[in-house]
Amino acid sequence: MINNLRINKNNFIDQTIRISFKFNGKKLFGYKGDTLASALLANNIHLVGRSFKYHRPRGIMTCGSEEPNAIVQVGKDSSLTEPNVRATEIELYEGLEAFSQNCWPSINFDIGGINNFLSPLLPAGFYYKTFMWPASFWEKYEFFIRHSAGLGKSPTKPDQDLYDHQYVHCDVLVIGGGISGILSAKLSVAKGLNTMLIDDKDYLGGSTIYQDDDIFKINNENSNVWLKKQIETLNKIPNLTIKHRTSVAAFHGYNYLLARENLIDHLNIDERKGKIRQRLWKIRAKKVVIATGAIERPLVFSNNDRPGVILSSSIKKYIDYYGVKTGENISLFTNNDSAYETAISLNKSGVKVKVIIDIREDSNSILSEQVEKSGIKILKGYTVIDTDGYKRIKSFDVMKLSKDGGSVVGNKITYKSDCLGISGGWTPMVHLFTQSGGKLKFRNNDNVFIPDENKTPSKQISVGSSNGDFELDDVINNTVKNIKIFLGLDKNDFENLNIKCSKEKQKRNIWLLPSNKPISKTKPFLDFQNDSTAKDVKLALREGFKSIEHVKRYTTTGMGTDQGKLSNMHALGIIADTTGTNMGDLGTTTFRPPYTPLTFGAIVGRNVGKFFDHTRRTAIHDWHVKNKAEFENVGQWKRPWYFPKNGETMHQSVQRESKAARESAGILDASTLGKIDIQGEDASEFLNRVYTNAWSKLAIGKCRYGLMLNEDGMVYDDGVTTRLAENHYIMSTTTGGAANVLSKLEDYLQTEWPELNVYLTTVTDQYSTMSICGPNSKKIIKKVIPNLDLSDQSFPHMSFKNSKINNVKCRIMRISFTGEHSYEINVQSNYAKDVWERCIEAGKEFNITPYGTETMHLLRAEKGFIITGQDTDGTLTPSDLQMDWIIGKKKYDFIGKRSLYRSDTIREDRKQLVGLLTDDPKEVLEEGAQLVESLDKPIEMLGHVTSSYFSPNLNKSIALAVVRSGKKLKGKKLIVPMENKNINVTITDTVFYDKENKRLNA
Amino acid sequence: MFIINCPYCGERDQSEFSCGGEAHIERPKQPTELSDDQWAEYLFMRKNIKGIQFERWNHIHGCRKWFNVVRDTSNDKIHAVYKMGERPPIK
Ligand SMILES: [Zn+2]
Domain A305-422 falls in which CATH fold? Predict the structure, then answer.
């Protein structure tokens, strides 16, 4: 059997290189240059899958990216297997293994096939209508549906392949390497423009490159010969880049395009190692030429989906390009001249063409006359009404069409054929054009949507058959004429070429071909991948759907991985016919990127694993790792969370760290806090405007806590700012807020207060910060900096001194976020680890204890200090936080001030920050838990817990919460209802520990 | 993904910029003089035009300068770019 379907003479397939591959486990052979589809057909394999809904046997139907049926799973390696790959686009390589999808348990015996017999019960919307009710039944349906449906399997392990992204700029991008694309590229490079030519195939020349027929001549050469010579000259042009195996996925505004280049999928497995699999090109082109061609339409008649029913132009490509016969006894069914070209090719290769069924009453072109002369039988004004054969077409029935084309007349004739080529005309590939914002117009005489030249975005043009020119002379002449204007060219080589070709004279189109049976008894498929029929579309219209977008979703027409490349036009046509609307008025559905499916690998490129996001580590990070810190992600920062010792749990560590910090000394790496250097003669005025409290009178060398609001009066960020010199401040922000605070301040400086002389510089990374707290912190600092006067008179709380630690300049602030006597050392980051280690060394005798973010949070909660972003959520004013003391009442203005006395912000029943104590001191609340007053339904929610800890220093559970009217409710009992119990709590003051702040100066 | 002609740096990809909403809304000089309604007008009310819109943009991953852009929101065509404090070159 093998190879008798392969003809010998062929220019494109290298029959000296035999390639072995496996399909569904069976070992087969093909040749270098084959696609999986052509190799399967050469092995007489048509049946490649089962349809999605009815599990009908389906065969290879096309030879390109529009293929709806032949989608396969490639490879079985759990990290490299890929689902939903079109067999028509897989270049054959040694070791290829492919499997049919959507068949269970096997391609030849498929349990879901029973759906085919149930199909009268499975109309459009069936799943919506049936399985949604009663809801409890869904579980029972789901198993069956999930098991029998599905589009391939996802890999279960991470992808091992490499993917890449690359940016490129060019003067002209030409999409499509067919004859119109090649002419455009040649004209562009001749003008000296930096040009990029992209084609999704491994060869250039489109369908003209195998159009070897005396009927089609350019300057007295066959069109393929002439074009081949043009292509040969392309390689020598320096300002031309050609990308093969590259498919444009998206065309965005401003000529920004994404294209996926396949680099290794065609190589033998052993040649791929270490090479990049796919590259996503991010192209910015000054001008774009769309030359994406057209795809052939099927014809819609009953049982038009059997294996062996193939697009006529694909049959031609299989025989002329791949040298593969798609059958031994082929018939053709058409509404236009294209099928005659196929007939001539088949005839030349010695394949018997049994009959051509043409729905047109007449056809008298050069093509049709040549076919008639060759003796092939042609039935004019006939239609195919049905086909027979289960896993492969065996025969089909034809009848004469009535004059109006609405019915069939006369007797049924049956023809035996193992392959039926169908041609319903051509559809220009306008997907990229519309993606870019272009609008289509409808051409009535051959029912095509083509780019509207008046509604084309600037700096792009569509040429060739993607612009609706289907005949060789029109393609060449219009491309050359339009490109000349588009690129502003002078005279050129391609004007006045001598072109000979056949011209189609008769046209007839019937979207849904009539049958001798009522439509309910037929199966005219529209969308082969999603199994929707013309009946489904008609049903949707009867049920009241009118918009094409709604019909599409209800019937799922055009919603498969092929995005309805073959089905959309017929769906529109049937809607137009049924509703009596002009197709042009209906419009099309929206074409969305990607044009063909993209792998996730190509989309993410190198941004995987550790490159998925930036990781920021402090200068002291290595010490933390060495000392077994557990880390917490805070934005992009890695912060020590806690430092477990001897197998401690997190709770045990935090309790130990918290006690140590209050009893002796703790040390925290606070380097991640944002630091903004503020300089300029108006720096004080600037701070006055951005913080709620007063800043003009802050003495040099002093620190102050500031609260920053949004204009809506809600707390935005907080931190301590230090006046380093007359016109020089250093502001600290929260870790998470650092970048946003800087941007916000810049915004005000540049747009609202340009008169202020202030400069902002982020120094978060330049300085590292360590905070040493606890009753022994002073002794440790004394050891590290012996000559620094640490007396309360010289260096009181909220003040700052410049100093040196072992000759390294540092800024020491006496500020505290724990309520303990505390110092913060700021030092240039490259010295930070050394300074940190000196502090640890000096603190050893005091059991200095490194602590992480969790202990920091606990210690500040004991003192009732808020964390913006944890206790606040953008809906709390300073007053809601019981921080009225920080509002500079005498200040004329600051960001957010006016909002603090809007009717809404002065409401007394706003949510306000309170402390909570559980009646059972051992019971620790969950953060986020709701607070209620009574359990009577409906239960009213009064607020929620924002921070909650077990305090080792108080030996009880403490929490902060926001509660409606909370300020007035001190002493009130509330309930925290949890899944299994109700927890009783009492509202308290927010400060739990050292209310008199005695420890600050201890 | 459009291209914005930063008045300080020149043409750059949109991904380098961030949009700051409607332009030419000046922060009131004397907020305390305003009624709740007047302040709310400044604080909350923004246009959302299909068509020509005046916007603030920040070259956040570049020179970090704020400037104004006149953009047609229906097709992203940018009609003008001008510095803060300048009058719109078109109406
Ligand atoms: Zn800039």
Answer: FAD/NAD(P)-binding domain (3.50.50)
